[in-house]
Protein 1
Amino acid sequence: MGRAPCCEKTGLKRGPWTQEEDELLVDYINKNGHGSWRSLPKLAGLLRCGKSCRLRWTNYLRPDIKRGPFSPEEEKLVIQLHAILGNRWAAIAAQLPGRTDNEIKNLWNTHLRKRLLSIGIDPQTHEPTSISSPLMGPVKRPPVSPSTRHMAQWESARMEAEARLSMESSLLLAPSTPLPPIKKTNPDYFLQIWHSEVGSSFRNITTKSEKLTYSSPVSQASVSGMTIEMAPKPEVELSSSNLEVEPESDLEKMKIINIYAGFTHSSGSSEVEDSSDTALRLFFDFQGQNDMSFLEAS
DNA sequence: AATGCCTGCAACCGCCACAGG
DNA sequence: GCCTGTGGCGGTTGCAGGCAT
């Protein structure tokens, strides 16, 4: 019994690729494109299975692959994205140009996971393994489903970015009022992700898996003459026992989500600071350990 | 110098989703 | 709606090189 092999394995080479094989594959794809991976090996003169060719190309031979060690910024981004997306390596890789899902998966399993563990952070939940209460001592957090937690982190950052855009928009619309110094922010990173394929897939997943108990209308923000339509919010499941008061504002909703997700920080500040930084801290909820200095530790 | 252990990474495996017939 | 083929994804494995003893 058993599943039929993905391709005829008899007579096919396995294991590490030789330089000659690499050259054959690259030459063929450069001239003809990969077309059907199944038929490619025969056409390219390779004794490999199509799947193996595809893997070799996507993980190693593709011209746009960035080789070499990950920078600290890339590592931080991987951790933050992992907090949002979980083990969806392909989605994470999509946000790191030139990096492959396999590379990121290896980085996580060999470096980042261990570093998080070494500082007492659960690499799966991105939460401390235990929290301490002045009255009760160390207390285990109530379990929170990964999808809810990731969704909540997404939502927190998105709301904050949205609030910042609204604030900037209102300031731009009222030029007579003295403008407080606003930090110049690059295009908001998390809004970019939110509106990217990653955000889209994430919204789809949460929409499929979570029941709706609240939603807010599509909102718009106008910045520098550019109208940005905010995507509908992902749907959130909050049981009636957890949610007794209908949230009035996005801020209140955010607080509720954070409480529901087991967050302890106060994210409801009315001050609009650099939302990217704030969002990073929200994503990287380390219970007061917001610096990423551990990344420098080997 | 020899041996064993550890680590990092390339490659493989099995499952899933999707498109086309 | 079902079946089949294909591509893509995430988990796991195996090997080579580095390091410690």
Protein 2
Amino acid sequence: MAAAIARGLEAEGFVVDRAGDGPSGLDLARFGGYDVVVLDIMLPGMSGYTVVRTLRAERNWVPVLMLSAKDGEYDEADGLDYGADDYLTKPFSFVVLLARLRALLRRDPQPRPTVLVVGSLSLDPATHVVRDAGHEVDLSPREFLLLEHLLRAHPAVVSKETLLESVWGSSDDVNVVEVYVGYLRRKLGRGRIETVRGAGYRVPS
Amino acid sequence: MAAAIARGLEAEGFVVDRAGDGPSGLDLARFGGYDVVVLDIMLPGMSGYTVVRTLRAERNWVPVLMLSAKDGEYDEADGLDYGADDYLTKPFSFVVLLARLRALLRRDPQPRPTVLVVGSLSLDPATHVVRDAGHEVDLSPREFLLLEHLLRAHPAVVSKETLLESVWGSSDDVNVVEVYVGYLRRKLGRGRIETVRGAGYRVPS
DNA sequence: CGGGCTCCTGAGAGCGTCCTGAGAAGGCGT
DNA sequence: ACGCCTTCTCAGGACGCTCTCAGGAGCCCG
């Protein structure tokens, strides 16, 4: 299948590299400097989900088009949640694949990171939707902003002063940050935000 | 020139509308529901580049063929970067234009629909018809425009300020937006438009 | 082991955002 | 001129959000 697609794309003038399993595909995507990645979900060694999630966690925003035999709506949402840019279910015509690829290629030269993903947690700044293991979580504006900053910093530690500055726009009492971290922990689970005594907070992987 | 092309295409069986400047062309392309657009680069009021870029930014994937007197390679790349599907430099023969147009029409067997559809809700900018689960809904012009913008943004959140700017053309009191969201909710059902406190409104999937 | 510090958390007051009903002003067709 | 529809303003009120405070728990150090 991969060979067939590669041949077709080369016939259309694309320059194509091909990987046979998940890990080597991830490496190619990391260091190959590609314009677009076509990614199957079912892969030996590492699922396509994991590949795209890993890329996004490394702040790699190369456009990704996912392929899958599944066609449930949940699967599609999953793929897009993990950071894929488009989705195609088998069977598909080669012409459609071409059209979608061209659409991806002519998008913004620097597509903004649509979704922040860490582990089973995802936050979409555009839709203001936060999901934990696929289950939607309701956050207040302040809580949302705080989580967004923590996720953007992931996996680094962020000091309370920094959070106060960037989320609250400078107030004077850092206790507010502690209170809101408490709110987030109550909604997301205790382990989602770690306290680093004397330094601040971080979201563990 | 535009008149000559229009006559020629009509003689070939196409149904043609024609705009004399950039802004009106953009409006036609937006709401006309065309199968293909022929677009000159040099236009009064707004360049062809801007027209096609605006269309793509609005997720409008109508096939666009650009025309220009320039023939540098850079120009061609520019046009295609902004989202044009093909490019023709003057002078060109009418037969070539016809062939390229037919190729564009053949290309994507499943062009992105111009009708906006989210769930059981559909809005057709061309006919100004809104349906909810097959049942037609009567909207005032302002209500229609507001819903259209929300649907185009789907599933992203749109701030009241943005809506005020793009639907009302900048007033000063965002309460108007709240009132009209109320009107839409009354006609479409409560759950069709979500309030995202502190951020704006969104149409859920 | 005890003191001091950092961090957590429950309670509650105040405030802001958002919703809604009422109604005035304007446009348009009859 | 009349009635209908649309648009927009205004004010009241509900509810959720934000933040403060104070006490308590946990950690580090002497």
